[in-house]
Write a structure and sequence with these properties.
It is built from 8 helices and 6 strands. The protein has 268 residues and is an alpha+beta fold. Helix 1 packs antiparallel against helix 5 and helix 2 runs antiparallel to helix 5. The longest helix has 42 residues.
């Protein structure tokens, strides 16, 4: 047994810094954010209900995570096959769909709708889509009034779906990086203590959580670091046009090269 510092800590700290940078540039968005998006969607359309279903890769099913509207809550928690019903069709094809008479469309799953306690007359379904793939489906049911859904409604629903997609991707940054932290620590632990007692898994897991928590908490002490002020400024550039962003990227590249040269000079 030695008192040498754990050689894994610098790697852990570097990854934890990436978690914090990602959190500052893309704040995490949980269920509350998604619910606010669905609430806004239902309010804008004056719809009887709106819901958001997320794809679960482990089971290959669409799980309805949040809903809004007078008739929306019955769907929360419901899971369907990734190709089942209207939501499954939109998820599988990546194509938005508007139905003025759902009862006459073979893709509509009446049995599933009846399980929620509300059978719609008309609906819009749009995919939660970005360059990385499809995350799920946003549905809007029964716009109030005499008019049905039209192409403009599909375009508006797509805007809300895009916002939900951004929120979901942001919320997964920390989750995925936390998994990476754990994987790195587990691999190192197995490599350095392969002869340890197999029954110590629970203690090892607790130790990993303690190390991760301690390392990430040290980031709070760096709150006045100019790097984070820069990160906050970069976050504000989201509204900039592509030309301005290209200029910022070029300037940052110059600064990075100068920093690298400075580090090289100091180590000589």
């Amino acid at each position: 047994m030695t008192d040498e510092p754990n050689p894994l800590i610098p790697t852990l700290h570097a990854v934890a810094l990436r978690v914090e940078a990602a959190r500052r540039l893309a704040p995490p968005a949980g269920t509350a954010v998604l619910r606010s998006i669905v609430d806004a969607t239902a309010a804008l359309f004056g719809a009887e209900a709106a819901s958001l279903a997320l794809h679960d890769p482990a089971t290959d099913r669409l799980v309805f995570a949040v809903a809004a509207g007078e008739h929306g809550q019955g769907v929360v928690g419901l899971a369907i096959g990734s190709s089942q019903g209207v939501a499954g069709y939109v998820f599988s094809t990546g194509q938005p769909l508007a139905l003025s008479d759902v009862a006459s469309d073979a893709r509509f799953g009446r049995d599933t709708a009846e399980r929620t306690g509300y059978v719609p007359r008309s609906l819009i379904a749009v995919p939660l889509l970005d360059d990385e793939g499809i995350l799920g489906v946003l549905e809007v049911l029964d716009k109030r009034g005499d008019g049905g859904f039209d192409l403009r409604d599909v375009e508006l629903a797509t805007v809300f779906a895009r916002q939900a997609t951004v929120a979901i991707r942001s919320s997964r940054i920390e989750r995925d990086t936390a998994s990476l932290l754990r994987a790195v620590l587990v691999a190192a632990d197995e490599a350095t203590a392969s002869g340890s007692d197999a029954g110590a898994d629970g203690g090892a897991s607790d130790a990993l959580d303690a190390i991760i928590g301690a390392e990430i908490r040290t980031l709070d002490a760096d709150g006045d670091d100019p790097l984070w002020a820069l990160a906050d400024q970069i976050a504000l550039l989201r509204a900039a046009d592509p030309g301005q962003l290209e200029l910022v990227r070029d300037l940052l590249a110059v600064l990075v090269r100068r920093a690298d040269r400075g580090r090289s000079a100091r180590t000589r």
